[in-house]
From TrEMBL:
This is Ketimine reductase mu-crystallin. Pfam families: OCD_Mu_crystall. Its EC number is 1.5.1.1, 1.5.1.25. It catalyses: L-pipecolate + NAD(+) = Delta(1)-piperideine-2-carboxylate + NADH + H(+); (3R)-1,4-thiomorpholine-3-carboxylate + NAD(+) = 3,4-dehydrothiomorpholine-3-carboxylate + NADH + 2 H(+); (S)-cystathionine ketimine + NADH + 2 H(+) = (3R,5S)-2,3,5,6,7-pentahydro-1,4-thiazepine-3,5-dicarboxylate + NAD(+); L-proline + NAD(+) = 1-pyrroline-2-carboxylate + NADH + H(+). The gene is Crym.
Length: 256
């Protein structure tokens, strides 16, 4: 797939588009499944101001949005973080979450165990490599799913009541990471209702009802409900790339 994600933010005085290629590699590949480039334009005249590494921006802004959701929705005493998947998003989520939150234990599971072991050996803190997704998830307070799964790998009867799940993978209408039980018995938050109802197989195929967009919680028009089991379905929004690209460009321009 080749995706084009244009956005304009008047508040940030920023105009961008992200070009992203997405290839499902049947065999393990040294080339990432997602590759991206962000073009930053001058909103006054349309001139191209910068070309930025969209893969880095995508990884960091996605983890940042998950972190906002987690800050608002996770249980009051969250001690165990579980990451399902060991790709680029797993690394960015680990870095962001361990910087912003204090977890006593971090667990990881990946379909290919060698990648999970490599992940655990690469990051700065202690990570427990689990032999099954169920082992990784059992008792976890915060769960991050960043996989290439097309059928569910996370099941509701494994999940601790009151846990918070960031569902980041499965960005196609016929792909799943979470089963029906988890989707229907959790309070569902999304980044965009419109996107979730057309792009997310987890939402479409389960028929789960969307409670709120994350922006509504940030603005205070919808409650966060951290005492409930919560799912944040992340699909990504072009404006996130716009804000991130402008932030990088302004920092670079200022000589930082």
């Amino acid at each position: 797939f080749l995706g084009v994600m244009p956005a304009y933010s008047a508040a940030d005085d920023a105009l961008t588009t992200k070009l992203v290629t997405f290839y499902e590699h049947k065999k393990d590949s040294s080339v990432p499944s997602h590759q991206a480039t962000v073009l930053l334009f001058d909103p006054r005249n349309g001139s191209l101001k910068a070309v930025l590494d969209g893969s880095v921006i995508t990884a960091k802004r996605t983890a940042a949005v998950s972190a906002i959701a987690t800050k608002l929705l996770m249980p009051a005493f969250a001690e165990v973080l579980c990451i399902l998947g060991a790709g680029i998003q797993a690394y960015s989520h680990y870095d962001t979450f361990t910087e912003l939150f204090t977890f006593k234990e971090v667990r990881i599971w990946n379909r290919t165990k060698e990648k999970a072991v490599k992940f655990a050996n690469s990051v700065n803190g202690p990570v427990q490599v689990c032999s099954s997704a169920q082992e990784a998830v059992t008792g976890a307070d915060v769960i991050v799913t960043v996989t290439m799964a097309t059928t569910p790998i996370l099941f509701g009867d494994w999940v601790k009541p009151g846990a918070h799940i960031n569902a980041v993978g499965a960005s196609r209408p016929d792909w799943r990471e979470l089963d029906d039980e988890l989707m229907k018995n959790s309070v569902l938050f999304v980044d965009s209702r419109e996107a979730a109802l057309t792009e997310s197989g987890d939402v479409i195929l389960s028929g789960a009802e969307i409670f709120a967009e994350l922006g509504e919680v940030v603005k205070g028009t919808k409650p966060a409900l951290p005492e409930k089991t919560t799912v944040f379905k992340s699909l990504g929004m072009a404006v996130e790339d716009t804000v991130a690209a402008k932030f990088v460009y302004d920092s670079w321009s200022a000589g930082n």
